[in-house]
Amino acid sequence: MIAADKSFGFTDEGIGEIVLDSRKEMHNALFVPIIGERSDGHDYIDMAIKNGAVAVLSSRDIEPLKEKYPDVKFYQVPDTKTALQEIGYMERLKFRGKVIGVTGSVGKTTTRNMIAEALSAGMKVFQTAGNANSQVGVPITMFQMARSGADIAVIELGISEPGEMTKIANVACVDIAAVTNIGIAHIEYLKTQENIMKEKLHILDGSQEDIILYTNDDDPLLRTLSVEKLHDFGIAVNKHVEIRHYSLNDYSLSLLMKGNHMLQNASAAMHISVDVGVDSEGAKAKLESFTGVQGRGETFRTSSGVTIIDDAYNASPVSMKAGLEALSQIEGTRKIAVLADMLELGDKTLDYHREVGEYLAGLPIDVVFLLGEKASYIGTGINSVFDSSDKDNSKKPTIEYFNDFSELDNTIHAVAKDGDVVLFKGSNSMKLSEIVKEFRQEKV
């Protein structure tokens, strides 16, 4: 990738931030108008300048804008998203510390936070803010990273379409990569889990000749990965890759967040932090006091004595099973699972929901609230297990079905009592986080 200062003469001098949202109050910002499916950011350049933008990329003719705003710098580019990625690469070259890249089907954000937490026992750490892991998020992250003064950085890289990982990996140029697992998120577009694994492994694109790749040994596909297979995929062919596996049982950890998936994430954090020179006891102490990430497994207690597991940000079969496992392991009077539709799972969507139900039937869970037509098949899966086996029906959870969000909201608040543990899990657009937000106002 050619840096932006070479390709279209960009300079970051005087730029305080990079902004995509023209409505935001900004400070000496570079405004990058992105052309989306429903709107074109170029239509809001005037608003961005009014709100503080001092420089603008544009794939439209910039001459009228230069006349209208003589004090603003305008850069003519063929494509603003590609130009933003060039700027991100230019900024990446300014960072002197190691860059750790994290990807995977589920658990990216929690693993990234855990790695950063463990590293903080001995280093100044920069990490991706929020969920800025996309083609536009990663370049902005590089800009922030270059100004952080950190010793080391932990960057999240995500995909939503084929070929996307290569684009962002060529911006991030990671020195160390970690792959959490290979699930079925985005299988609608990538068709098979092996294709998903290949796409994730393109995180190595853009790295230097030597790179360390950490993979989850508890994952069936990643367990079989070798350097030879990487090269057969056409990945890192001319690079020296050292693969280091990690597993949930590698370290003795007592985490506040329950579930094998959390132990896997913490194991990755321990391996990486210790390997880069952080004291193992310090890293362990940091991880054992970590309460989780909002929307991704964070556990908190309300003033009325209800324990909430906030895993409402998103959902796939793998992550939903992991959330249910965590729910089953926390002590409480009743275990209540509030589950909503899992989306973007392709032709087998209903089968995946039934599968979750069958898994749930084997756990000590007392009440199940299901929101949405697809989620109702979780109930089908639960019923099928109890109807077709010798299982004690007294252990069958109470199942309630909802299509109305407000009705679900009111029911949960009426039902949840002191001593109960409530898990919220579903795709983000199902808005379970709005119910969690109400409970969060009672957080102690």
Structural write-up:
It is a single chain. The chain is of the alpha/beta class and 444 residues long. It has 18 helices and 16 strands. The protein folds into three domains: 4-78, Udp-n-acetylmuramoylalanyl-d-glutamate--2,6- Diaminopimelate Ligase, Chain: A, domain 1 (3-Layer(aba) Sandwich), CATH 3.40.1390.10; 94-288, UDP-N-acetylmuramoyl-L-alanine:D-glutamate ligase (3-Layer(aba) Sandwich), CATH 3.40.1190.10; 298-440, Mur ligase, C-terminal domain (Protein-Tyrosine Phosphatase, Chain A). The protein has helices spanning 4-7, 45-50, 63-68, 80-92, 108-119, 137-146, 164-172, 187-190, 193-201, 220-223, 227-232, 260-275, 280-288, 317-329, 349-360, 376-387, 405-415, 432-440; strands at 17-19, 29-31, 53-58, 73-76, 98-103, 125-127, 152-156, 176-179, 210-216, 240-246, 298-301, 307-311, 335-340, 367-371, 398-402, 421-425. The strands form three sheets. The chain has a six-stranded parallel β-sheet with strand order 6-7-5-8-9-10, sandwiched between helices. A six-stranded mixed β-sheet has the order 11-12-16-13-14-15, with helices on both faces. Strands 1-2-3-4 form a four-stranded parallel β-sheet. Helix 12 (260-275) runs antiparallel to helix 13 (280-288), helix 14 (317-329) runs parallel beside helix 15 (349-360) and helix 15 (349-360) crosses helix 16. It starts with a helix and ends with a helix.
Mean pLDDT: 93
Strand order of the largest sheet: 6-7-5-8-9-10
CATH arch. level architecture of the largest domain: 3-Layer(aba) Sandwich
Biggest β-sheet description: 6 strands, parallel
